[in-house]
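subagent[fold] <- orchestrator: predict structure for attached chain, return tokens only, no commentary.
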Amino acid sequence: MRACLPQRAVVLHALPPLADGVEVLDPNDTFLLAMALGGEADYLVTGARRAGLLQRGTVGRTRIVTPAAFCAEVLR
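subagent[fold] -> orchestrator:
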């Protein structure tokens, strides 16, 4: 198994506002989506099924996946 190392890191000094039309079921998840969009993340990894993030599947270019799906895809 190979190690999964980040390709790059991004420091966000401020979170961008979510674009019109990006709805969040749980307001506490707004910052997660803003970070994913602002940092142009490939993945947002979460195990929180009840919040609706996993059901969304993507936000912008970011795929929203479980830890198991992330490991299966990236560590193969």
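orchestrator: received. Logging for downstream: The longest helix spans residues 30-38. DSSP finds three helices and three strands in the chain.
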